[in-house]
Amino acid sequence: MFTQNAIRTGFTRRAANNLPAPAQISVCSLSDSINLMGATIPYRRNAEIFGENESADYVYKVVKGAVRTYKVLADGRRQIGAFYLPGDIFGLETDDLHTFSAEAIGDAKILVVKRSALIALAARENEVACELWSMTGQELRRVQDHILLLIKTAKERVVGFLLEMAERVPSSKHIELPMTRQDIADYLGLTMETVSRTLGDLERDASIELASARQIVLHDRGALGRLNS
Amino acid sequence: MFTQNAIRTGFTRRAANNLPAPAQISVCSLSDSINLMGATIPYRRNAEIFGENESADYVYKVVKGAVRTYKVLADGRRQIGAFYLPGDIFGLETDDLHTFSAEAIGDAKILVVKRSALIALAARENEVACELWSMTGQELRRVQDHILLLIKTAKERVVGFLLEMAERVPSSKHIELPMTRQDIADYLGLTMETVSRTLGDLERDASIELASARQIVLHDRGALGRLNS
DNA sequence: CGTACCATTGACGACGGTCAAAAAACGTGG
DNA sequence: CCACGTTTTTTGACCGTCGTCAATGGTACG
Questions:
Q1: Residues B115, B43 share a domain
Q2: Contact list, B131 vs chain A (CB under 8 Å)
Q3: Crossing angle of helices B154-168 and B181-188, rounded to 10°
Q4: Is B46 helix (H, G, I), strand (E, B) or coil?
Q5: How far apart are CA A193 and CA A188, in angstroms?
Q6: Is there a single domain that holds both residue A29 and residue A126?
Q7: Which of A6, A164, A217, B169 could in theory staple to A130 by disulfide, Cβ–Cβ 3.0 to 4.6 A?
Q8: Could you tell me if A149 and A188 are in contact, meaning their C-beta atoms sit under 8 angstroms apart?
Q9: CB–CB of A137 and B94 under 8 A?
Q10: For residue B106, what is the domain's CATH number?
């Protein structure tokens, strides 16, 4: 995916010289670099990975488990910015400080790599520079989509959340949610109660099935898509 | 759309003639590069500058006037992503499609530069590559702050909007709003009526004064900041 | 001076928040 | 394996904020 972007933007040295990029080489040198250069660290449930306004010295990649990033407002309201699942990179900043705090949702394993090392690599390898930029752009698009969720009705937000999660797991019908109702609520700008009630309503509509609180089966994907307007 | 194509064609011709030789550009900022390499184009009130999902071939900088970027949902609801004022750069994508549409709010002058030219420059000048990345990161932070607005009460959103605008204009007490109440509403995820009523409430509190609908004076900045929680 | 467009104001209702309690799930140690 | 305490989730009753619909007032521009 990253390589694809690099080629399209014409940002790599290869593309700038009009040489075709071999299709067989690494799909994503940034992700590969993190795998090679990083150290795996275990975090326990609810452990803080980094805090808002802390120095952004490291970049992170989820190996196992899930992560939430969030901000807490003056009055205690919490807004969750994103959920990160295995394979996702997070905590990459263009500035020197983290804009969000990050916590492990359950027990997790996280790859950690020095940001300065990636930036040094980017200075030599144009492709890596491009992928860093691309990564931030991807995050930007994700947040922009998040905004579109926040202006909708409660039902649309919950459906939007379920579809978003469904796209990110292997089997897109059965989804296992690592986070609590409160986490979902703080992501969607709703209350826990409204999230719970709305999921109940969707089950009554037969659009979904709550196998357990954290195990959801999407039955009528088409109907859900229509609700998602 | 018709106008846009005509303008773009015109721009391409000019740019080909006026583009300085790459070697003459040494170390300079992204903004300077745009000033040097760009062509100024006038847009009339409500004219489309680019559309969502159109090819992102150009990057833009407001010279005069103001710009709104937006998306329209299936059911007609419109979400404004950002307002851009003189000096602001917009329309820079890491992918090759625009994620939002952009329109001039009033009559405007916009500097336009080929994205490929900036990317080519970035491939040679590390500093420019860094600034492109930084630019996207700045946009990311802006959108993240926007999310924090959208989870607040109507009063807090309106106050947040006013403070945000106040920070961006020379005199931070008197602010001249280029946009309509509907634009503000679509930016804040509220209705026109609620924005109007809330501004009225703030005036009754003596926190602000509505010299005219578009001319607002912030009286009690401290009180506003407290409301902004 | 008239015609759009924009802004304000009012009445009313629905959606979602708040508070409270019960039920279910989970983990821990006996 | 069960008993117990804690956390999470669900459900209910009520209420406030903000959206909807409608009418009026203001402003800019031809």
A1: yes
A2: none
A3: 110
A4: coil
A5: 12
A6: yes
A7: A6
A8: yes
A9: yes
A10: 2.60.120.10
Q: Is the whole model's pTM more than 0.70, yes or no?
A: yes
Residue A165: count other Cβ atoms within 10 Å of its Cβ. 20
Pair A95, A169 in one domain? no
Q: Which two tokens stand for residue A44?
A: 């326990």
Tokens of A94: 């263009």
Structurally, chain A folds into a number of domains equal to 2
Same domain, A47 and A6: yes
Q: Please give the structure tokens belonging to residue A134.
A: 């691309």
A159 plus A133 within the same structural domain: no
How many residues are there in chain B?
Answer: 229
B13 shares its domain with B78: yes
How far apart CA B95 and CA B67 sit, in angstroms, is: 21
Pair A133, A49 in one domain: yes
Tokens of B157: 């959103």
Tokens of B30: 């992204």
| The pLDDT of residue B24 is above 60 | no
Give the domain extent around B178. Answer: 154-228
Which tens digits make up the pLDDT trace of B119-161?
999 999 999 999 999 999 999 999 999 999 999 999 999 999 9
Q: Which of residues 153-212 of A touch strand D (CB under 7 A)?
A: 180-182, 192-193, 195-197, 199-200, 210
**Distance, C-alpha B208 to centroid of its chain:** 24
Fill in the DSSP letter of residue B102.
Answer: E
Contact (CB<8Å) B133/A138: no
Going by C-alpha positions, the residue among A28, A44, A168, A23 that lies closest to residue A105 is A44
Angle at the Cα of B195 (from B76 to B80), degrees rounded to 5? 40
Give the pLDDT band (50/70/90) at residue B18: very low
Q: Show which of A91, A118, A149 is a domain's final residue.
A: A149
Q: A179 and A86 share a domain?
A: no
